[in-house]
Design a protein that fits this description.
heterodimer; A: 456 residues; alpha/beta; Aspartate Aminotransferase, domain 1; Aspartate Aminotransferase, domain 2; 2 domains; 7-stranded mixed β-sheet; 5-stranded antiparallel β-sheet; 13 helices; globular; disordered N terminus; B: 456 residues; 4-stranded mixed β-sheet; 39% helix
Chain lengths: 456, 456
């Protein structure tokens, strides 16, 4: 098995997956998976699929055999839970009213959503452009950065994911998307991410993060002198959570060198980190903010680019000529989701539950040598498994086993970097359900520590 | 402003900042529309071909759109999503049913029955052995998936595509596109994109009147590039251009043979032309079979964003690579809408209808050409039609201002269409349009042309 393919998500061809499927799937589920495998082009990280679903509702997935799984992954679209009643009701109303708007015209719902986003976004992030997917929004950001600065180079991070198109994989840092793909966009410098636990500069040998990683970004900005933009996820899904000083320092360096700072908050904006936008945790306002995923209310494909007022400079260019730029149903769904997040105060809920979860995870770590590190910001949580705490060697096989064991106990989550249990539950989860999920994880870890590798 | 100076901004659609549009806004927008219109301009990032918009819509249904004041327009543009008509009851019913099923979003590591059904359906209706499907939210991303697949299959990266073509806004899609709007001032795009001329039998730089001469010249250009750049991954094109130009069968047979000779893949972008528009389910059925077929727009049933590629079994070679890591790859709601849209196209025999009504419409437009000297040429296939306006039929000088004036006059009379290349009125109604509605459109065009003629 190739470790290099483990960055973005769990791989879809491991022996543990096979074992899990053999023990858990009935004939109907297998027939659906066979049909899926028959008609879909296979690619890593998706097809062949793990299982078939018949419902996604609240915090639960339900498979064809009626088994329910708490979903701590949800491709990060599920801030308000799956099939949120308010979102669904809004969609139905909008279908009755106006189901599509061609892009040379506008629609009230599109305007309402744009206004809402500008009101929520910090600082003078006041101009919006919509498109169906985060990848497209990243492309629009890159284009606008080029038009606004007259430059084309970028700095982005290894291991990052910004989307799957040729431009997005150029700035992304994962070989599953880049390797053997041939020439990508020119001028895309990459730097190591701020990952204190596996720091490229080995800061852990010196007592923790000393911002060497930020200094390297400053160094490139100065050396190249004509960088258009620094593009990064303020917090990586893994999660890597840098110190606020990290982003503050890079923000200042960008200003010094005339580069724009673009934050890709596609997976984590809209409450997950305990704030409406991730950047608010760092007291840094980017020049452009890209959001997506949960913006579609957990139903619709919808993404947005939100930029500072002064960047409204491309009126004669086409930045994002997307058919669904003004889709009223998508916008109504997005508005409903945001309203729900506000009404239920889900950002605050994420903050409080996240703190509680992190405390629980820290206690788990004190009981289990397999856990090398626990991290979190709001309800973006990670448990990193290691073979040995001193060498920090990734416990890849163990993590894979824990994941499938948890699945058998009704909890679905994703692995990143092969060894990190990445936990992003719906923000609507109750404290009791969260405790239940963490208890499942702990019991799976205990079993693996005791040498039980059974995944059924 | 001289026509020549505006040349570069004619391409993909009508320009949104002309004097004629200003006049239209002044004379036609009610206070309530102006209010929303102003908010749209305030909150959205401005870009060419969309913001500022034309007006504000309140409904889209069947072949019609309706503005906030209740004024209805027969829509001959629809951004290409409305092959089954806007708001088709069967599509809406399928969407509502899917919402009630509580299976809308499906995380991409799982599969579900609607997604598999849509893939199966496409594999069944696609020509020849095109049977492997991959979905994503938008056509731009689907084009990128096709380009990435071609790179993985051939181990090459260069492409041939056509000037004036539009394939999407991502940097990869924009690179193979051939429009200034998406190329200039955005810096270096994806490398290796060679461009040649698309056949144009009415207007070509060589003054050829015979189709075979135009074909021979265009094929010569392609072969010339292939001789010098034999390591070509793919040739990507719309089988019928958006303008439209309808190439001969001989042209595409020649291109197919050249691709085969040099080991380049043939990618057909049928985002606009597929799913019944040209009188067959797929435009390529008039010509040759591509290696990859790209679909979008109407694939979302006229209300949801959905797109994808369909390719041969033998290109199912990825497994350890990811070419389309799209969150909504398996969105059950989008798939249900797409499936219902396809069923409408089949059960209402909309391909055949496009063929018959297309012929009817085409003849009516030819009749119009006999009485309106402004019409230089009428082209098209099925319900994908275009009227080219000229100042003089001999010199074929483009009647740009006249085209703009006709567009706004028609809009005032309740007919909406897009102008392409500055002087081509593109007419792509819903395939559910009636004969009477076509008659109405022809009458409005007649009156608009008459009014513009008398202004001159």
């Amino acid at each position: 098995m190739n470790d290099q393919h483990r960055s973005e998500g769990d791989i879809n061809s491991s022996p543990q997956r096979q074992a899990w499927q053999e023990q858990n799937l009935d004939a109907a589920s297998r027939a659906l998976l066979d049909a899926d495998r028959r008609y879909f082009l296979q690619q890593s990280l998706s097809t062949p699929c793990l299982n078939g679903l018949q419902h996604c509702k609240g915090i639960y997935l339900e498979d064809l055999q009626g088994r329910r799984y708490m979903d701590f992954h949800g491709n990060n679209v599920h801030q308000v839970g799956f099939a949120n009643p308010k979102v669904l009701e809004t969609i139905k109303q909008q279908l009755d009213d106006c189901s599509f708007c061609t892009r040379r015209y506008t629609h009230q719902k599109a305007v309402d959503l744009a206004r809402k986003l500008t009101e929520l976004a910090p600082g003078d992030l006041n101009k919006v452009l919509l498109c169906p997917g985060g990848t497209g929004a990243v492309g629009m950001a890159l284009k606008l950065a080029r038009v606004a600065t007259g430059r084309h180079k970028t700095i982005s991070m290894w291991d990052s994911f910004h989307g799957a198109s040729l431009d997005a994989v150029s700035v992304g840092g994962e070989d599953v998307f880049r390797k053997d793909m041939g020439p990508l966009l020119p001028g895309t410098e990459h730097v190591p991410p701020p990952d204190e636990y596996h720091c490229f500069y080995e800061c852990y040998e010196r007592g923790g993060c000393d911002l060497m990683c930020a200094k390297y970004v400053e160094y490139i900005l100065e050396k190249e002198g004509d960088i258009a933009a620094v593009l990064a996820e303020p917090v990586r899904s893994t999660p890597y959570i840098p110190k606020p000083e990290y982003w503050q320092r890079i923000r200042q360096a960008c200003d010094r060198h005339g580069a724009l700072l673009i934050f890709d908050e596609i997976p984590h904006a809209l409450g997950r980190t305990g704030k409406m936008f991730t950047c608010e945790n760092f007291d840094v306002i980017p020049d452009m903010l890209v959001i997506g995923k949960g913006l579609g209310g957990g139903v619709f494909p919808l993404a947005a680019l939100i930029v500072r007022e002064k960047l409204d400079v491309a009126g004669d260019r086409a930045l994002g000529h997307y058919t669904h730029e003004k889709n009223p149903v998508a916008c109504a769904a997005g508005l409903a989701a945001i309203e729900y997040i506000e009404e239920q105060d889900l950002a605050q809920q994420a903050f409080e539950l996240g703190r509680h979860a992190l405390e629980t995870m820290q206690a788990m770590m004190s009981r289990h040598a397999l856990i090398g590190d626990v991290r979190g910001l709001g309800l973006l949580l990670g448990i990193e498994l290691v073979k040995d705490r001193s060498t920090r060697e990734r416990a890849v096989e163990e993590a894979e086993t824990v994941m499938y064991k948890a699945l058998s106990k009704g909890l679905s989550f994703k692995l990143t970097m092969g060894s990190i249990l990445t936990l992003t539950p719906p923000l609507t989860i109750s404290r009791q359900e969260l405790d239940q999920a963490l208890a499942i994880i702990e019991s799976c870890i205990s079993e693996v520590e005791q040498g039980d590798r059974h995944v059924g | 402003m001289s026509a020549e100076n505006t040349r570069p901004i004619w391409e993909q659609g009508d320009v949104n900042l002309t004097a004629a549009r200003q006049k239209y806004w002044t004379e036609n927008l009610s206070d309530q529309i102006k209010d929303w219109f102003a908010k749209d301009a305030k909150y959205f990032l401005h870009q060419a071909l969309s913001t500022p918009v034309m007006t504000v819509l309140s409904q889209a249904s069947g072949a019609w759109i309706q503005d906030l004041d209740g004024k209805r327009y027969l829509d001959m543009h629809g951004n290409g999503v409305h092959n089954a008509g806007f708001n088709h009851p069967r599509v809406l019913e399928a969407v509502r049913r899917q919402l009630d099923e509580a299976l809308t979003f499906c995380p991409r590591r799982y599969t579900n029955i609607p997604a598999v059904q849509l893939a199966e359906k496409l594999a069944t209706v696609a020509p020849g052995d095109l049977c492997r499907v991959l979905f994503c939210p938008g056509g731009s991303e689907a084009v990128e998936m096709a380009l990435m697949l071609a790179r993985m299959v051939t181990g090459r990266f260069k492409t041939i595509s056509f000037w004036d073509a539009y394939h999407g806004t991502g940097f990869g899609a924009a690179a193979v596109g051939g429009e200034e709007h998406f190329h200039s001032r955005v810096g270096p795009l994806v490398p290796g994109a060679f461009h040649v001329q698309f056949p144009d039998y009415y207007r070509n730089p060589w003054g050829f009147a015979r189709k075979e001469d135009v074909d021979a010249e265009c094929l010569r250009q392609i072969e010339q590039v292939l001789q010098r750049e034999p390591e070509m991954a793919a040739l990507i094109a719309e089988p019928v251009s958006a303008k439209p130009v309808v190439p001969t069968r001989e042209f595409w047979t020649g291109v197919r043979a050249l691709c085969d000779a040099y080991g380049a893949m043939l990618i057909f972008d049928e985002i606009i032309e597929g799913l019944g528009r040209t009188g067959k389910m797929f435009a390529c059925e008039h010509y040759v079979q591509p290696d990859i077929l790209v679909l979008g727009k109407s694939l979302g049933g006229g209300l949801l964003p959905f797109a994808g590629i369909v390719t041969h079994e033998k290109y199912n070679i990825l497994q350890d690579r990811s070419i389309g890591h799209y969150t909504h790859e398996k969105n059950a709601l989008c798939a249900a809408a797409g499936l219902a849209g396809l069923e409408v196209i089949e059960t209402e025999a909309l391909s055949q209808r496009a063929d018959e009504l297309g012929t009817y419409f085409f003849r009516a437009l030819e009749g119009l050409r006999d009485k309106q000297a402004l019409i230089g040429n009428v082209t098209g296939l099925g319900l994908h039609l275009g009227i080219e306006l000229v100042k003089d039929r001999k010199t074929k000088e483009k009647a740009v201002q006249e085209a703009e004036a006709v567009m706004f006059s028609a809009l005032e009379q309740g007919l909406s269409f897009k102008v392409i290349d500055g002087n081509v009125l593109t007419l792509r109604p819903a395939l559910t349009i009636s004969r009477e509605e076509i008659d109405l459109a022809v009458d409005i065009l007649d009156r608009a042309l008459e009014a513009v003629k008398s202004e001159d």
